[in-house]
Structures are given as structure tokens and as C-alpha cells.
Design a protein that fits this description.
Length: 357
Amino acid sequence: MDAVSLKSVSKHYGDKPAVANVDLEVAAGEFVALLGPSGCGKTTLLRLLAGFETPDTGTISIGAREIARAGKMLVPPEQRGVGMVFQSHALWPHMTVGENVEYALKIRKIPTAERRQLVERALDTVGLVERRDSPPDQLSGGQRQRVALARCLAMEPSVVLMDEPLASLDVHLRENLQAEFHRLHRQLGATIVYVTHDQSEAMALADRVAVIDQGRLQQVAPPRALYAEPATAMVADFVGRGMVVPLDGAVTGRAGSVEAKLWGEPIHLRSSRSGPSTQACLRPEGLSIGQTGIAAKVDRAVFEGAASILHCRVDRAPNVLLRVLYRAAPPAEGSAVRIAISDGWLLPAARALSAAA
């Protein structure tokens, strides 16, 4: 498997930048998810890697080969050693499962005996050898997506690109195939670049997650680091129920732990460094209802199975709702409460964005 490198890559459609000056390194055998809202540029990045688009600036490399640079496609799509799995399964309805997997190998004029071995191996990898002679319309949605994956694997690509492959499936099938993708990645050691707008999917599958917004790379980090230490307000808000709140005045302390005030109440925050930061990221599990803390009133309680999420309106900032993880029977709507903060993250000063209520 090969590494992937994008350096200062941009792509415009008219005056609008779909991708803006992106630098991203994917190690050989790494699983990286491109995560962001619709229209953020993640699929454009995938198309640039696949060779369906040419960058306006920068360079793209797979392994030791530079495959594209500003305005030039140096290596065409079919010679990049890249496999693609789309959201739509794109299976030929008049062909059997085996014939669908074999088709691209025929186009490449791979000898018959070798083709059959590759098809058998790919179908065995995804657990569909027994459905080799079935037409696609006799398969479930999850099985059809596994056929699409087998078709990709049969080509023995150096890099696998996936464009929201689970988006059209129901929740149960998505969970099953997430486990399947995780198993295959560990088994094959494939380099995978995976596009999704579903943060739970990205966090469950990827070694690292690259968050993109308006064509710009916001942060690249392992899932736990991304959740615990967001680099921007956008990442804090987009990933995992983050609440970005404005701090009162100066922050004191050193990297690791700092002191600040929030609506008049003293709080401690984790921090990568001290400095003139003005915002913090809070998460529901870092908040609790107690005898002291920020005065608020319960706006509503949302039952989520093992716990409820209390939406509490802050007395000193009525436009702000804090969400609190609450495991007991929730207090009535309109109840006065105090919110204690046991964990929060100081957003890095250089990248803090405008506060979001």
C-alpha cells in the first residue's frame, strides 16, 4: 500500500474555492476520514485523488509518484492504482455478482485464470463467495455494497477511496458494515481515504479524522484527540455536541491547566497553552447539576436511553443553552438549577472563531 500526499492543493469552480490550500499526508496503510458538512469540499478532494479533477494549485502524490500538479494531470485515473467505492453500488443488473467483480479485470485484459483467482479472493474477503452466481437484485443493500467493495479489492489498488459508501443504508446495516470495513482494514492493511458527513462513522472507523469546512482543512487528529482538544470553534461545534462559550476577561495559568471565568463563575480548563484565548469548548458529560455553579433554568429534557440531555438556559445569557448529561429522573421544565463544570477545553487563541450560542 502507498502513502498519499497533498501539498497546497486548491480547486476552484468559477470564483468559488471548493478546496483551498490543503496540506494532507496519509501514511501507507492508514485509514483517514474526510469529515465535514455538505458542500465543504471533501468529495472534491477525493475526486482530485481519483483523477476525476485536476488541481488549480499544488501537487498530489501517491507513493513515490507525483500524479498531478497545478493544471496538469500527470497520471491518468486508470494508471493511479486507486480503487473507488461509491455511495451508489453501481452494479450491472444483467451480470452476476462474480461477473460484476470480474468486469474491470476483463477490461484490463488480465488472463482468465488470474482473473478468477482475484475474483475468488475478493469475494472470500467480503464473505460473498457463495453468492458468486447471484444477480444483484437478489442481494440486500449491505450485500450489494460488499460486492462493490469486492470489485474494488479485486483490482488490488494501492489506495482505496470511499465516497460516503454507507449513506444510503439503514442504521443497522451501517453498523454492520462499519464493523466489516474495520475488519478489512486491519486484515488487508489498506491505505483508505474515506469521505463522510457522519461524525460517528468517522470516529468509529478512522485512525485519523480530517475536518474540512468551506474548502479549508480545520484539523487532522486521531478521533479521541479531535473530540477532547478541538483546534477551532467549528471543530468543537461540529464534532460531538460541543458548546463554544465566551469567557469573561483574561485567562491565567500554564499549558495543561488554566483558570478563567464564565458568566462570573471561576472554572478550570484543559489547555494546550496559556494566552489571550476568549472561548472554551464544553461537552455534556463535563457538566453536572449541583449546589454551586452557573445559574440556569431547565428548558427541556431529551431522553436518550441510558441518560437524558438537559437543555438549560443560562440566567446571565438567556440566548445560550447548555446541554448537561443527566442520568437520574430529569427535573421539570422551568426548574432553577446550578451547572458545575468539571471538564472543559480552552480553544487555541490563534484559531478561535466567533462564538456560537
